[in-house]
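Meet today's protein:

…
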Amino acid sequence: MNIFNILSEIEKVDADVHERLEHISRRSMFSTIGKKVSAYALPALLATTIHKAYAATPGAIDVLNYALTLEYLEDEFYKMGNAAANLIPAAEKPIFTQIGKHETAHVAFLLAALGNKAVAKPKFDFTAKGAFADVFTNYKTFAIVSHALEDTGVRAYKGQAGNLMAAEDKPLLEYALQIHSVEARHASVVRRLLNTKGFVPGAKGWITLNQGTPAAVYAADDNLTQGGVNLKGLAGKSDEAISEAFDEPLNKEQVLAIATPFIAA
């Protein structure tokens, strides 16, 4: 997260951003951070400052809590997976350790941004009511659930971006998109692992048509019409190649239907 860039971008839509940030100048703010706060804590610190400076609309609060619930899910999943004995091979352990750190930072950021409006963390059932009974004992199952959660997160953030378009929510939209792009990188690296480990031969870093498991995660991702234009046969490209060039959103109802089996209470 490039914090200097964030403040510069906010200035484009709000010339009074520094006055809003409790009259803290950019130089003094980051001097304080450099002395007292670790780099790992920066997202939460910035989110807290933004929370104080900008009042989000009720709709934005709902979107951020929706995102927080998904981040809770992913964060807990990687904490449990990384802690499970003999689950993740040594060669891939750094990948999932780093993804876990990212998810923890996302949770911290959203909690700080929401303050006392944040929803409580649910209890999770990562077997999804028995569908993935060996998720923390079988590496293949773990990797498949990981890629499904990451792909769901990418499509979920995309599906809610339009609900953060109110002027007072624009800074929150930027932060949500910053999380979105990192989730996409997670999805890509895990999808490639599925191929290299032989779990899903031919799997790529992007989604082909609506191929993937569970099927609900990839519903309608084989759409070939973009911006009202049917791209089928474009420049002699196959349907597979065209679908790989575009990613579709999932609405809240679709995402909740995917996530519900993983939520115990």
About this structure: The chain has one domain: 3-206+247-262. Confidence is low (pLDDT under 50) at residues 9-14, 22-33. The domain at 3-206+247-262 is CATH 1.20.1260.10 (Ferritin).
